[in-house]
Amino acid sequence: MAYFDGIKVGDKVWDFGYGWGKVVIVSEKSFVVSFSVVNNIAYCYDGKLCIDKENKNQTLFWSKINFEIPK
Hints:
- The chain is mainly beta.
- 0% of the residues lie in helices and 31% in strands.
- It has a 5-stranded antiparallel β-sheet with strand order 4-3-2-1-5, with no helix packed on it.
- A hairpin with a 4-residue loop joins strand 2 (19-26) and strand 3.
């Protein structure tokens, strides 16, 4: 089971670099998210960019990730 199993068109998701976006296309192997700053980024169902095979980190989440900055 992948992190984004069950995702559908219209769902809102959050990316570290782009902020909030909306799912616009869902296919068998990936889905596409449109953001206000950039259109149509493809993600794999594990939340990683599909085009960036070198990046091993998940960047897309169901909700915003909040960090507390240390003093």
